[in-house]
């Protein structure tokens, strides 16, 4: 019998709920709600909380790709062992408090949000659950394992650790390719990208939610400009950019992703000027 997935006790799901509600508040220009959600994320997912430790384990299994099978199996095993070291009563307490705050200060309908990778999120929840039968757990681990060892498209490299020298090379290559100096928005994005390796990407995701919301709004507004409306080719290109921004939540934050956002930032800057 398949175990029921309690999404409100799934730390990864709760985090995704907050990220999506944050994005909605940014698009709606709801400054008050945006501040509340940012506060909830920073307070509940700071490094010394059980929620933060739990989320890190979820992300290790959900975001890992291109790993060899043996190493992936070891990672799953280690994540399960580390999950056992988390005080479950404390985790439950933190989840309960956060769920209550989301219902009171964000929206009681927030947990009805659609998440593209919901099936995988639910699968990891069952892998971590002490109530999952051994046979079922093995089958579930096999499902996640197959995704962790999948060979990524060569044009979509995995996010790798980047030091200052690599950053300089990345910026230099971008400048040479697109023949422009980095604007302020691009520098902020690159700095957030680098720092994301020290905080599990939490700060980066918060920044991207706001920045992509800003870019999306600017691109949508540009469709009303006469020079774009009267030029079918420009209108088509603008729609393509809008489509890219609308699918960013489903993509890994790798160098190709960052380069696309960097280019769109320049485009928006030109539109605004």
Description:
The chain has helices at 11-27, 31-44, 50-62, 69-84, 88-105, 118-128, 134-148, 164-178, 184-195, 202-222, 226-229, 232-246, 255-272. It has 273 residues and is an all-alpha fold. It has two domains: 7-148, no CATH class; 164-272, no CATH class. Helix 4 (69-84) packs across helix 7 (134-148). The longest helix is centred in the C-terminal third of the chain and has 21 residues, at 202-222. It is globular and about 65 Å long.
Would you tell me the structural class of the helices and strands? mainly alpha
Oligomer: single chain
Q: Can you count the beta strands? A: 0
Q: What percent of the residues sit in helical stretches (DSSP H or I)? A: 55-70%
Q: How many structural domains can be distinguished in the coordinates?
A: 2
Q: How big a fraction of the residues is strand?
A: under 5%
Envelope shape = globular
The poorly predicted ranges are 152-162
In whole angstroms, the N-to-C terminal distance is 60 Å
Largest sheet: none
């Amino acid at each position: 019998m398949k175990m029921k997935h309690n999404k409100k006790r799934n730390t990864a799901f709760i985090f995704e709920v907050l990220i999506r509600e944050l994005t909605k508040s940014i698009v709606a220009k709801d400054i008050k709600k945006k501040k509340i959600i940012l506060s909830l994320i920073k307070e509940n997912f700071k490094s010394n909380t059980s929620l933060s430790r739990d989320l890190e384990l979820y992300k290790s299994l959900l975001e890992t790709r291109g790993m060899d099978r043996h190493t992936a199996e070891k990672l799953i095993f280690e994540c399960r062992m580390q999950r056992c070291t988390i005080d479950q009563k404390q985790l439950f307490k933190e989840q309960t408090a956060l769920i209550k705050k989301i219902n009171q200060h964000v929206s009681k309908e927030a947990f009805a949000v659609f998440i593209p990778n919901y099936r995988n999120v639910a699968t990891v929840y069952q892998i971590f659950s002490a109530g999952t039968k051994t046979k079922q757990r093995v089958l579930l681990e096999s499902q996640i394992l197959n995704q962790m060892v999948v060979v990524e498209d060569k044009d979509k490299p995995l996010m790798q650790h980047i030091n200052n020298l690599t950053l300089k090379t990345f910026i230099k290559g971008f400048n040479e390719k697109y023949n422009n100096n980095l604007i302020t928005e691009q520098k902020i994005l690159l700095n957030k990208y680098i720092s994301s390796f020290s905080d599990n990407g939490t700060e980066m995701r918060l920044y991207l939610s706001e920045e992509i919301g800003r870019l999306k709004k600017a691109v949508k507004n540009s469709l009303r400009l006469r020079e774009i409306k009267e030029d079918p080719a420009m209108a088509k290109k603008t729609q393509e950019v809008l489509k890219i921004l609308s699918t960013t939540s489903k993509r890994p934050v790798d160098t190709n992703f960052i380069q696309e956002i960097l280019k769109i930032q320049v485009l928006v800057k030109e539109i605004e000027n």
